[in-house]
Amino acid sequence: MSRKRKKRKPGEREKGLPGSDSKSNTVDATGSHLDSLLGIDAKKSKSYARIKLYLVGLGMVLVLAGGYWGYGAYNKVILEEACEAAKSSGDWAELELKAREWAIWDPDNEKPWLYLATAAQEVGANQELLKYLSLMPESGPSPAFMLQSDILFQSNKAREAAEIFAMLVAREPASKEAHRRLNFYYAMTRQRTELIRESRRAIQDGADIIDSFVYLVGADWLTFTNGYQVTMAWAQAYPGDNEIFEIAAAMHLIAAGVDQSMEEVDEKLKEQLSKSSEIIANLKAKYPNNREILVMEMVYHIHRANARKVGELLNQLTIDVEDDSRFWRFKGWFYSYCEDWTQAEAAYRKCLELYPYDWQCRHELSLVLRQLNKPEELKAIQESAYLGKDVMRDVLQADNIAAISLKSMEKIIQYARLCGESEMAQKLSDRLYER
What is the DSSP letter of 50? Predict the structure, then answer.
């Protein structure tokens, strides 16, 4: 028996029919049909409708993004061609214009920054050149970073240059040039610990050059004839934050006063050298926990045989120096002065364990061994001490590392062997004769 339909008012729909919800007829009409196809409960149709709208919107975003990416990729090809054409024709203004536009589209690409750097370099705009190179991603080519470091050095921005060298060494451990430049920075700034570590790392990485071995052997005494002037200029470039450079300048200055190979110093430097103790005292007041200042102070008093002051300084140490061979040498000197030969021997041996190339320690140890009546070791230690001092003299008398003679380099090989560093001796021999 058929049921009678209820008579509807004009415009009224039956319950349960598509579009019965007056809030959104279109959405419900479409949704109820998809609900039946997908098996979705009618009560969830509103939520599903919102999901469909989200998916439709997402699809539109993806389409737009794909179009943007496609246009961007095409645009970059056009811009690269334009940059290359401008470079070939020598139109540096056009090259800068197109490269800037490209860099906006693709800032993580090294190429537009290199084009911008080229344009700036060709017109002599060094500040712009430096800016463009600094914006280049770390994946950029090494020569570009080397150029950036050259400009930084010319501007006395040595700290930023050193950061570039450290980045390149980490990225390219086999880069001899990166190691060489980083080692030079450590040597010039008299950062002894870093200098020894970096020299050994370059040798172990197979990125060593002759400089690496000279820096390693001469870490305690290597200075530069222009070291004071260079590091003072660097110090002035970082007012208020120049501790490393200010102390390095003092170290070069004081070394110039005691090194016989640097007798020809100007009158201004001679006047400053006469105030070495004042220089050290002022620096210590300013940087009380700096290790290198303490080393300078120790050496100053040892040269004047002031054992009382050396003892006081050793007893008042407020910084950790257990891993610094120099302080073991200072202890050895103090014990020797007090004629405590056994303690002196132990201190000197610890010094050589930490840093075997200390010829001064070897010399002082030989005096102790004589007192302890140990002739078997005495001869070998004396021989190495004399050779180490001879190496220092040869290196300091050379105009630069490249000017060190082959004979002097062979002395370094022999000295390394006498110091128990046969592997280093062999590596230097291989480097020297390119085996």
Answer: H
Separation CA 372–CA 367 (nearest Å)? 9
Interval 229-253: pLDDT, tens: 999 999 999 999 999 999 999 999 8
Domain over 67-217 is classified CATH 3.30.470.10:
no
CA distance 265 to 187: 21
Q: Contact, 66 vs 36, CB < 8 A?
A: no
Of the candidate CATH numbers 1.25.40, 1.20.58, 2.30.29, 1.10.3680, the domain formed by 320-435 belongs to 1.25.40
Cα distances from 72 to residues 65, 68, 107, 410, in angstroms, run 10, 6, 12, 60
Reported as type and span, the H/E element at residue 395 is helix 375-397
DSSP label of 6: P
Q: Would you state the torsion angle of the CA atoms of residues 118, 121, 126, 129, taken in this order, to the nearest 10 degrees?
A: 0
Domain ranges of the chain: 67-217, 320-435
198/184 Cα distance (integer angstroms) = 10
Average model confidence (pLDDT) for the chain? 82
Among the listed residues 360, 226, 233, 244, the one whose alpha carbon sits nearest the alpha carbon of residue 293: 244
- Class of residue 330 by CB neighbours under 10 A (exposed 0-12, middle 13-18, buried 19+): buried
- Which phi and psi angles does 230 have, rounded to 5°? -65, -50
Contacts of 139 (CB under 8 A, 6+ apart): 110
pLDDT of residue 28: 38
Q: CA-to-CA distance for 385 and 321, rounded, in angstroms?
A: 24
Contact 106, 76 (CB under 8 A): yes
Mean pLDDT within 40-63: 46
Name, in order, each residue with C-beta under 8 angstroms of 283's C-beta and a sequence gap of 6 or more.
246, 247, 250, 290, 293, 296
Question: Rounded CA gap, 187 and 11, in Å?
Answer: 94
CA 296 to chain centre: 26
- Measured CA angle at 382 (ends 377, 385), to 5 deg: 125
Q: At what angle do helices 307-315 and 325-337 cross, to 10 degrees?
A: 130
